[in-house]
Design goal:
With about 600 residues, the protein is an alpha/beta fold. The strands form 4 sheets. Strands 1-2-4-3 form a 4-stranded antiparallel beta sheet. A 4-stranded parallel beta sheet has the order 6-5-10-11, sandwiched between helices. Among the domains are: about 80 residues, Arginyl tRNA synthetase N-terminal domain (Gyrase A, domain 2); about 90 residues; about 180 residues, Isoleucyl-tRNA Synthetase, Domain 1 (Orthogonal Bundle), CATH 1.10.730.10.
Length: about 600
Amino acid sequence: MAPVTSITANVNARLADALTSALPEAGGADPLLRRSDRADYQANGILALAKKAKANPRELATQVVEKIVSGDLLADVEVSGPGFLNVTVTDRAITETLAARSADGDRLGVPLKEQPGTTVIDYAQPNVAKEMHVGHLRSAVIGDALRGMLDFTGEKTIGRHHIGDWGTQFGMLIQYLIENPDTLAPADEVDGEQAMSNLNRVYKASRAVFDADEDFKERARKRVVALQSGDKETLDLWQRFVDESKVYFYSVFEKLDMEIRDDEIVGESAYNDMMAETARLLEESGVAVRSEGALVVFFDDIKGKDDQPVPLIVQKKDGGFGYAASDLSAIRDRVLDLHATSLIYVVDVRQSLHFKMVFETARRAGWLSDEVTAHNMGYGTVLGADGKPFKTREGETVKLEDLLDEAAERATAVVREKAEKVGLTEDEIVENGRFVGIGAVKYADLSTSANRDYKFDLDQMVSLNGDTSVYLQYAYARIKSILRKAGDSAAPVAHPELELAPAERALGLHLDAFGDLVYEAAAEYAPHKLAAYLYQLASLYTTFYDQCPVLKADTKEQTENRLFLCDLTARTLHQGMALLGIRTPEKL
């Protein structure tokens, strides 16, 4: 089915034509529509155009009204204030447009991009042989939501999980495993919890020996050299740590209700063979220079203490490579081999300076350009109730698994309170409790602008009131309950001939804005805008539900039309929440 043009776009086009007729030099200028309390829309771009044309804005607005072709779209356009236009859309236009969206299945009339690109999203980057903690939450949740929104617009997305699987600590771990071969079970013999327990035990034991035994420390350092030079025995043991860690990673991501593909886990080690070439290319092109034995890149606008330049270190003076070399090699791979047109990095905002320098270096080298862009989606910190970084009572970093388990437990208690009323089985209570709990955690994160910190408050997250995923999920479940009660007695059918109540109009216009909003949120990498849209949709539905009887409407046609609005609202909530990675149970 052909995509549906939004009412906003149609009104804009109608006003732009009238504006061009009244003021030819405007050339189809955008009237700058916005939603208004006094009408469906308010056009406020005429003031600026009148000033530019040295015309009286109110007179120009009056001329525009005279030139407007209303037809079935516009019920009324009136001049307001110094030269605003208040625009009211017909009830028929609203219902007919929504009917077209409803007929388009899961896409709801939202078009695909005409020229989609390829976006590589770097997100969910845990470290091998280390537990995932609350600090890993935001990267995974935000990255997954960005991917959902971009995929929906037609963009080709490729995930990259740049896991920490390389570095000096592996010399310590591998050497300990060589000397204590029975301390790590094969990955195919353990589950996620056992895998992490094994890794923790090996890490703590090896660290204790490393700190206490100078001879072991020297053997561990030599093992790093063996690892980096490709020694087979060393690589085989390194792979055991990676495989065991993946078992654990997958168990955590399963709790997050998030799919992580094995072929998209491409860690630091994957770029080991590229780093020497990356350094050579940068040095030969003059982008990087030697300074005190190291290969570095300088920037005029990045300086530290005493106004001294802060360089990006590509290669250390001892010949070793750090994060910059692997990040730059990753950019080369993603642009040259994956043919990416956009790169998104969902990383801690504290790494912003590092990525600023990496991106500028890549631009100087020609790996990034106007056709290939990179964006650092720096995210803020998860805070506790005291406004400080979220910690346990003992002051330790909160384990991500523990946090997710508690969220599911709290949400299950909320679901259980209403379970008997809606007829949920014990299995359904547990499953829905998990969906509600994980959804609550995700939504609290995604409803906040990514670069801002937010407080982690499970009591608020699982509340039925306020801006929470639980509020949205219950709105969806309420609608599905109404549709079930309607049964065969009445079906969702659009009736464009009917007059709409104010609450129906407000709900309908907001439903029509879904596609425009998804495109805006995807283009700006702003999942919080989609979350805000969905919360407003649920709020408008609540008002509609309170003011407009559905199953007890005055006529059969009115019942069908209101069931139609219910059905489309449910489908829009379901699709919007799915883009954010949140489930919508049908019974709550």
